[in-house]
Amino acid sequence: MERLDEAEIKYARTMYEPIFTVAMEGDKIKVSLTTEIEGIDIHYSWDESHPDRYYQKYAAPLIVPSDALTLKLVTYHNGKQVGRQINMPVEELKKRAGKK
After folding, report:
1. How many domains does the chain have?
2. Which of 19, 62, 82, 97 has its CA 20 to 30 A from that of 31?
3. What angle do CA 56, 62, 64 make, to 5 degrees?
4. What Rg do the C-alpha atoms of the chain give, in angstroms?
5. How many Å apart are CA 75 and CA 48, to the nearest integer?
């Protein structure tokens, strides 16, 4: 990918985006995240700010806070942003978890 970046060739960066696994844990929604490529850091926020590499880094499944509206994620590799920001509404997480 570094060679494509250096040659300024556009390519799909979806391999850097998080893969969501959402489930219910009691009455809470639990979100697990993975990526297709190892060594990718996922940083996130639950508020309306835009996360960057200085925000919390994903290390374990997340429990959705009761007052959260959106989970915002961005991926980094070696301190450089490699994926686009993903905005996942909590309502969509509820649907994926099967919560009504």
Report:
1. 1
2. 82
3. 105
4. 15
5. 17
Other CB atoms within 10 Å distance of the CB of residue 81: 14
Q: Is residue 17 part of a domain?
A: yes
d(CA 33, CA 97) in angstroms, rounded, equals 14
Indicate whether 58 belongs to any domain: yes
CATH number of the domain bearing residue 60: 2.60.40
**Average model confidence (pLDDT) for the chain?**
92
| 2 falls within a domain | no
Q: Is 84:13 a contact under the CB 8 Å cutoff?
A: yes
- In angstroms, rounded to a whole number, what is the distance separating the alpha carbons of residues 17 and 33? 10
Cα–Cα dist 9/23, whole Å: 38
User: pTM for this structure?
Assistant: 0.86
Those residues of the chain that have pLDDT short of 50 are none
Any idea which residue has 């099967």 for tokens?
98
